[in-house]
Structure formats: structure tokens, C-alpha cells
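hi!! sorry for the late reply, been swamped w classes. u asked for the two structures so here they r. pasted raw, havent cleaned anything up. first the sequence of the first protein and right below it the C-alpha cells
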Amino acid sequence: MIEDDQRLAGMVVTYLASNGYEVVHASTGKAGLELLRREAFALVLLDLMLPDADGLELCRRIRAFEPPLASIPIVMLTAKGDPFDRVVGLELGADDYLPKPFEPRELLARLRAVLRRPQLGSATARAGLQFGRLEIDPSARTVRVDGQERPLTAYQFDLLLALAERAGRVLSREQLIEAVKGETLEPFDRSIDVHIGRLRAAIEDDPKQPHRIITIRGAGYVFAKVQDA
């Protein structure tokens, strides 16, 4: 947890510890990045406003790390209510967004949803998927186009997998949220659209004219079953 509010951090550490989670707290962006480089973590709770760094810039720097650290799930915490900041956070690679003040139970539910996703080496690993030049490997959690790996956040990978495993079916935003998170939560409005935009930037030849993830106006999105060879 990278958070300069000591009182909030103490509350979160205590509450999550009572629910079986170990939280390591850093009060500055610099200290948080040093911890991430030294130790292995399952998830980052990142405050948007820090005394020595901008949380959005920190999110961008984490996503620029070498794999697998670059794909660590990031949940942003902020007192700001401006939807612009939320959108920018997601565009920079955050997996979820929780405005302050928040209920500890909601934070716990969101963390559980993220941490519930399959990990590398899982015994329940699924077979790889191929659509023309696009390859998805669920067990390694990698995506390649023309043999070149395309970096995705954990949330974006799960969103792509949910679409690809239901190729040819139109999925609403609500269905995608449920498929990825495993439970019905209330993310801020249109967050799926932001993640879809990031996915298109990673896997489409021309994100402005997508042929893999198609928008069905008024209904949702469909992953093309047949794609260019």
C-alpha cells in the first residue's frame, strides 16, 4: 500500500490483516517503488496524491517495469472525485479505482475479486486460443500478435480472455464486469470502455478501426470469431 495518510493506512492494514491479508505500507512513492523492486507482491494499493510523487505517474512507471512486475494488479485510491482522474488512471494501467472515503468491506471485496484471478502455474490452466495472427496463452497469461508479446495489465488480460472465450457472442458491460470480477460490483460508469480502448491499442492493427473487438452500439462488445490470417 502506497499511501501518505498514516491513519487510513493503519486502518486498512489492521482491517485486511483481520481478514487474512498481509499489507506492507510505504508512505511515499519512492519508498513504494523500492519495495516493489525488492519484494514480491500480489497487488498494489496506490494513492493518487502523494507528497513526493503523482500517483498517476507512479502507475505509469510500474507498468513500464519488466514482466512480470509490469502486470501486477493496481487499485488506485483517491480523494478526488473528478471522473477525468479516474479515466486517466485506468488508461495508464490501473485495474480498479476506489474513491475516498470508502467502506473497508468494499475495498476487501474488490481486492478479493482481483486476487481471485488465475495465477501462473495454476493446475486449472486453460488451453491456448488462436485467432489468425493473435495468440492468447491463459496458462502463461500472455498475448502475442505476429509472435510479438503485447503487454497487458492483469485486468485487461482477463477482460480479453473473457471476450475471446465467448467469441462471436455479444457481451454487455455488465456481463463483462461479472465475467472478469466474478461478482457484481459497482465500478465507476463506463470503466469497461476505457479498458477496451487500452486492449484495442495493444492488439488491433488500427485501434480506430478495430476488427478484433467490435462495438455493438447499445448492446456491448463482441470478439470476432474469424480474424485475418
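now the second protein. again sequence first, C-alpha cells right under
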Amino acid sequence: MTKVLMKGNEAIAEAAIQAGCRYFFGYPITPQNEIPAYMAKMLPKVGGSFIQAESEVSAINMVYGAAGAGARVMTSSSSPGISLKQEGISYIIGAELPCLIVNIVRGGPGLGGIQPAQSDYFQAVKGGGHGDYHMVVLAPASIQEMVDLVMDGFDIADRYRNPVMVLGDGMLGQMMEPVEFKERDIVLPEKPWATTGNKDGEPRRIINSLFIDAQALEDHVHKLYRKYEEMKKNETRVECYNCQDAEIIIVAYGTTARIAKNVIQMAAQEGINLGLIRPITLWPFPDDTIDRWAEADHTKAFLTLEMSMGQMVEDVKLSVNGKKPVYFYGRTGGMVPTPRAVLEEIKKIREVM
């Protein structure tokens, strides 16, 4: 199959179209603007609809409406824009509607800057909106993986009637790599719950996230959590790289995982054996995998590498559960860790092991 050179954001948009997405609602914000621009150009050519909403709040509520009618729909934004969508995301989850949400993360807090960051981890995996809920959160580390995970994300969303988030960053969104769009049989599932009109005396279909009765709401949340347990069982994805016999294991995702692989190669030249655990799903988090490597005698410590002040490190510590020390190294505000700086941090850890 022929590979094409594409920018990350445009590859996301093309993957969504090839996955059967025909509706996109969004609002411009750097560094993800190429996604809505591509959708505005290409969706009408395949019979789809693009609407630039008057705000992020409007956009996520348009997603709610299209998803409720059974459409394959997505939105995208960057950090402050995703914050504005949080109420709508909570409503969509409460109403059990499938959709894809893309966050190309930039530095914060506030308006911050337009450089890449990973400081939206808490927002994505802990539930940035109100109420008890979760989304499957996919973290690509290459443009090819962006393509593949966007396509998988729509299927996962439909499978569980729940939003899926693809969490990238400004570097992945703007860089270019060769990608291929593998042939898939796109079969959109039947959606007997969708509000497509009351025909031929069919029972009424109601999309709703409001439960006045407390017991009814608790029962609904319990139902959602049974679904989340199925997600944990079936959707957890992780890459283990060079972990066999590694004395220190780096835990990183997305762009920082790419950096970590360079660090591993540099360290090997100096006789230092490092490994990498790369969560591909940030939720569900691969706790069992991390716990397994924490049990290994050769593993002396973990280093969590992030473009933040330390967010995923909390989940790594919970997974390790005190069996081995967990260290952290990060840059924030749009600064990207260099392989050399990470290797120097590794050497400091080895001195105290």
C-alpha cells in the first residue's frame, strides 16, 4: 500500500473521514487548526457536513445532537477549548452517546502558549467535567498511530456508546511523517436507540442525562461503571520496549515516549540497560503491566517522563504500589525534554539506587 507524507492534524482528519465520520463541529484554536480546515474542505465532497460553531460550547452541543441522531461525529480542539467542552462531554457520557474528541495539547494553564505539552493528562483521564465518568483515552506516538487510533476510536465509541478521546500534542499535530491508510471494511453499527423519528408506531426513543430520582441516577451510574469494567478488560493497550533485564524502566506516552527510545539507545552505548513502558490507553491505564515489571528482580526503579509538572506519575506510583522507587522528570510550558537531559537524570538515579 502506498504511503503518503502528511501532517499529523491532517492525517487525523483524513482517518476520521475514512472511518465513516460525516459530521464535524468545532472552533479554531492553535495548534490543531489543520483538523477543522481539512474537514471544511473535504467533508462536503463525501456528503458530510462541517460547521464552525460560534464557540466550543456550541460545538460540543452540536456533537451531542448529531450523536443522538446516530451519526458518526467528531470534534477537535486544544487545551483551553477542551476545557470549555467539559460540561457537554459530561452530558454526552451521561446520555451514553458515541463520538470522537481530539485534544492536541498546548502549554497552560490559562491561554498558556501554542507549544506542545502533556499537561491535560489529569483533565483527560480523571474526568475534566462533573460527575462520575470515564472515557477511553488513546495516546498516539506517531502519525501512523494517530491514523490507526482515530479509526479504532470510532469503533470503540460505538461499541460502548461512550465518547473516546485521542490525546496528542502540538508536536505530533504539526510534524509530518509517511502514513498509510489501511483498507478497512467500515460497517457502521445499527443504532436502535438513535432519535431518528417515531415511525410506524415504534416506541419513543429518548436521549437524556437527567435523573430526578436519586436511586434512578445511582442505578444509571452503576450501569455506566459496569461498562467501564468491560473497557478495562477489553481495551487496555500498552507497549513494552526493551524491558527484559532493564534496571530502570521509563514510563512515557506520546512524544515523550519517542524521546525515551532515543535515551534507551544512548544509554546502551554507555552500558546502561533501560526499558520503556508506553501506555497507549491512558485510560484504562495499564496498571497490571507496570505491576508485573515492578515485581521483576532486575527492575530497580521507574522514571516517569512527561511534558508536564508530573501528572501521569501519580498513576505510575499507584501501579508500582511501593514495590520499587518511582522518579519523575519533566519539562512544562511547551518545553520538550532532551534525550541528553533525561540520560543525565537516569545517571543521578543510578547513583542512589
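hope this helps!! also noticed smth abt the second:
The chain has two domains: 4-188+208-235, 239-352.
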